[in-house]
Structure formats: C-alpha cells, structure tokens
Amino acid sequence: MREKYLLHCPGCGRPFPDRYTLDCPSGCDALLRTVYRERRLILQDLPGIFRYASWLPVEGRLRIDAGPVSYTSIGLARELGLPDLTITFSGYWPERGGRMETCSFKELEAQPTVLRLREKGAGVLQISSAGNTGRAFCQASALTGAPVVVVVPASAADRLWTTVPSPNVCLVTVDGDYSDSIAFGREVCSLPGIVPEGGAKNVARRDGMGTVMLDGTLFAGRLPDAYFQAVGSGTGAIAAWEAAERLIADGRFGSRLPELHLSQNLPFVPMVRAWEAGRRTIVAEDMPDAEASIARVSADVLTNRHPPWGVRGGVRDALAASGGRVYAVTNGAARSAGRLFADTEEIGLDPAAAVAVASLIRAVEEGLIGPDEHILLNVTGGGYQRAAEDLDRYPVEPSLRVRAGEAFAGDLRDAVRGWLAEREVAVRA
Ligand SMILES: *Cc1c(COP(=O)(O)O)cnc(C)c1O
Ligand SMILES: [Zn+2]
Question: Which string of DSSP letters, residue by residue, matches 64-103?
Fold first, then answer.
C-alpha cells in the first residue's frame, strides 16, 4: 500500500481512504480502524505525541510539545507491593515533562483530530462536551488557530479555559443539561462546513489516546501484563487495546494482549453492570436513577450514558479479547486513593484518575494482580494545582446563549454563519 494508512471496517472487511470518515460507507455497525503501512513503529524525533506520528492518521505535525510521559513508580509501587509499576501521566507536571496545560489526556485526542480535519479539508469541528474534552479542544484551537464550535450546558461554561487566548472558539452555552447541548450541537452540524468531532468513531481520537499504551510500552521495553484506566465513554480503553494489537504485530514487545482493568465511579456504573450481566447492550437497568446517580459521582467525566459498548470493536469486545475486568469504585475509595497518590507520587490527580488508582489498590487487595506482573497505570489527568500556580488562565467567553430545545434557525443560524465567514470558511448554504 502506498498511502501512509487506510481505514478498515471490521464489519465488512473493506478498506478505503480517509476523508475524515466516521462511518463505514456500507453502513456497518462497527468502529472503523486505521491500518498503517508501517507495521514496525518508527519513532519520530519530535516532542509530545508526534513522536508517534507514524501511527497517527495525519501527514504532518503540530508545533505542540504535549504528550504522555512514563516513569517507573517508586512511592506508590512500594506502598502497593508492585515492584514493576509504570505510570503514564497525562497532565501538567513540568518536573516530569508533563506539559498538558489543560491537565487531561483529552489533549491527546484534540491534537491529531484538529490536524486530521485540517489535512482532509473537511471544515470546522463541532464538539459537545462539558468538561475535559471541550477544554482540550479550546486549547488546541488557541495553539493552532483552528476554529472550533463548542456547545456546553451553561452551568458548565466555567470549566472551559485555556492558558493562551482562544479567539477562534465559538462557545455556545445551552440553558439545559448535557443532552440538550448534544442535541443542539447536532443541529449546528447541519450548517455546511461544520463537522462533528465524532467521539469514539473518530480514529484520530482513538489513535491519539492510544499513544498512552505506546509510550508506556516503549518506556518499559515490553507490553504490560495489565492496564488500569477509569472509563466514561471507554474510548481510551478501546484505543489502548488497538495500540496493543499494533505493538504485538510489530513483534518487539511481546505477544500477549494486556488485560484491561477498567473502572467507573459509583453510583453511575453502566458498563460495570452490563459486563457483569453479560449484556451486549446497555439497558435502563444498568443506569437506575441516571440523573440522580450522575449528580453523586466525584468524577463526572466518567458519566457517559451512551458509551460505544456493544458496537463491533467497542469496549465490550476490548474487555473480552483481553480477558479484562471491571471495577465499581465509591467516592470514598477514590478520594483516599487520590490522597495516597498525592502523598507517594507528589502530584494531584483529576478525580477520574483517582478512580483508576482505587481500582489498582482493589486489584492488589483481592490478589487479582501480583508483584511479578508488569502494570501500566494510565493517569488520565492531573496537575491542576501546579497549572494554576504556573500558568495564565483565560476563561472562554460564550459567543451565543440559547434555550434548551431552541431551534437552530433565524438569527442563531446567521450568527454562526457570520462567525464562520469571519474566519474565511466557505459557507454556501
Ligand atoms: C475522559 C476522561 C476519562 C475517561 O476516558 P474515556 O475515554 O471517556 O473512557 C478518564 N479520565 C479523565 C481525566 C478524562 O478526562
Ligand atoms: Zn463495513
């Protein structure tokens, strides 16, 4: 194959070129995957995630130096009796080389996604996210100038900030909940020139997040026996599985898939329940009192109601293929795990990363992993305190405010078209 990569549908087996394609052209219910020409991972002499550019669905690079950083744990490892514990950290921690200034691994997704879209000439990205994803895309826009449309519930707008000004973000706040902003975001994508980011279907998102598995494996010289991560959509876990399969095909890092140890935060644990019940789809009884449960978790980035669970190539397949496990973690267990981590590793965690640490503690207590195993802990976010001390913080100001259920028409539509036109994006309709 001449191209750097092709997309491949695990449903019908067809390969095809990438046009920022999110779905199989034949309509299969499957996550498309990238297939790279280079089966052996060739490292690039570049900072951040572009070190792994040969396995990212982009041709060029961005001048951003943020990427995952891996190191051998001493403090936490000793505490848990795990001599072979690699921590891969995504967040702000300059002493260790951690330069994700919005403090979560969503930056791993935002960077290649912005570049992929630019290279495919497909338009302007639209993102609906109330948390780390929205902030990561605002930051990528601030650093690259790429225009993005971000739609969030009004109550969450204060979570969107960047460390440099972001003049090319169109922030729309919706007077409603997260589902209302998703619905409005979908309508905004009816405007020619605006493209949905795509979530788990976006191969740039998954391959960007997969650099955690690449970095941890390259650092240790081998694939881990077990991989720990807290999951909301589970996209990061699918990405870890896919990256591990590529590393196996590379041939230098081992031949066994790492067991995926995935955790959610009680009382909202739909994937834990669906897995334990052996269900292919997530049903209402996996999310009793969804709204009230979501309000009670400490790590609300883990509260996705529609994760890519049963789709071919989704989270359930990843767990099954790897012989993985799931954990339901209480707020209390997450809090004390976060404290232990801060005491032993000397950096503060995102509440979601604390959930993953709690699952690791539980796995040790229950003898599910042992001291002879090589463990990779994906610390998906942290360093907020450090970032607040060191860096400037610019709140992203809303461009538009809409009511829940308001139609994307008339003045609203004109306002977004005007915003696009100012950025010289061709809008024909
Ligand atoms: C989004 C997020 C997660 C969960 O990742 P998924 O890919 O959605 O499962 C975990 N930790 C942090 C800090 C996050 O921002
Ligand atoms: Zn197909």
Answer: -----EEEE-SHHHHHHT-TTEEEEE-SEEGGGTEE-TT-
Task: For ligand 1, pick from 90, 93, 100, 106 the residue to mutate: most ligand atoms within 8 Å of CB.
Answer: 106
Q: List residues, by chain if needed, whose CB lies under 5 Å from ion ligand 2.
A: 9, 11-12, 24, 26, 28
- Bridge partner residues of 33 (DSSP): 8
Query: Are 248 and 267 contacting, i.e. CB atoms less than 8 angstroms apart?
Result: no
Tell me if 194 is assigned to some domain.
yes
Q: Which residues contact 367 (CB under 8 A, 6 or more apart)?
A: none
The CATH number of residue 73's host domain is 3.40.50.1100
Confidence of residue 425 (pLDDT cuts 50, 70, 90): low
- Angstrom distance (rounded) from CA 172 to CA 177: 13
pLDDT value of residue 43 = 98
**Counting ligands in written order, which one lies closest to the CA of residue 11?**
2
Query: What gap in Å lies between CA 77 and CA 81, rounded to an integer?
Result: 6
Distances (CA, A) of 76 to 133, 145, 347: 28, 40, 12
For the chain, how big is the Rg over CA atoms in Å?
A: 20
- pLDDT of 429 higher than 50: no
pLDDT digits (tens, 9 = 90+) for 390-422: 999 999 999 999 998 899 999 999 999 999 998
pLDDT exceeds cutoff 50 at 86? yes
Q: Which of 93, 105, 263, 265 to mutate to test the pocket of ligand 1 (most atoms within 8 A of CB)?
A: 105
The pLDDT of residue 52: 98
State how far the Cα of 424 lies from the Cα of 409, in Å rounded to an integer: 21
Helix axes 315-322, 235-250, angle to 10 degrees: 50
Q: Do 260 and 290 belong to one domain?
A: yes
Q: Residue 219, Cβ neighbours under 10 Å: how many?
A: 17
Residue 144 marked in a binding site: no
Query: How far is it, in rounded angstroms, from Cα 176 to Cα 402?
Result: 9
**How many domains is the chain partitioned into structurally?**
3
The answer to whether residue 176 is domain-embedded is yes
Residue 232 has pLDDT above 70, yes or no: yes
Residue 84 lies inside a defined structural domain of this protein: yes
pTM of the model: 0.97
Nearest-angstrom CA–CA distance, 243 and 106: 17
% of the chain exceeding 90 in pLDDT: 92
Same domain, 232 and 342: yes
SS3 216: helix
Contact 161, 392 (CB under 8 A): no
Ligand index nearest the alpha carbon of residue 315: 1
